[in-house]
């Protein structure tokens, strides 16, 4: 099975499910968008699990098939959930006397 077969199947599934965005054919959800979603969900989960995100980013990069971490940054869209988890982490870092975990 090649990428064109998978992409065609995804388009059919998207049509069947009625997933559409405003903006015409070029703005519709793509199979490639799942990589972005997966990367952001993994990062959010690591924050929630209390993991060392900075140490794990190279693993995420390798999983996505990138040789440079900068290529992975494109996939890390800031979502409300990710922003919330990152801000909680920063709050615990910035005010350790209040957050004795």
Strand and helix map with partners:
Elements: H1 3-17, H2 33-48, H3 53-63, H4 69-73, H5 80-94
How many β-strand stretches? 0
Query: What string gives the helices and strands in order?
Result: HHHHH
**Beta-strand share of residues:** under 5%
The secondary-structure class comes to mainly alpha
- Main sheet properties: none
Q: What's the overall average pLDDT, rounded?
A: 90
Description:
The structure is a single chain. The protein has helices spanning 3-17, 33-48, 53-63, 69-73, 80-94. The mean pLDDT is 90. It contains five helices and no strands. It starts with a helix and ends in a 7-residue tail after the last helix. The protein has 101 residues and is mainly alpha-helical.
Please provide a brief summary of the model.
The protein has helices spanning 3-17, 33-48, 53-63, 69-73, 80-94. The protein is an all-alpha fold and 101 residues long.
Annotation keywords:
101 residues, mainly alpha, 5 helices, 0% strand, elongated
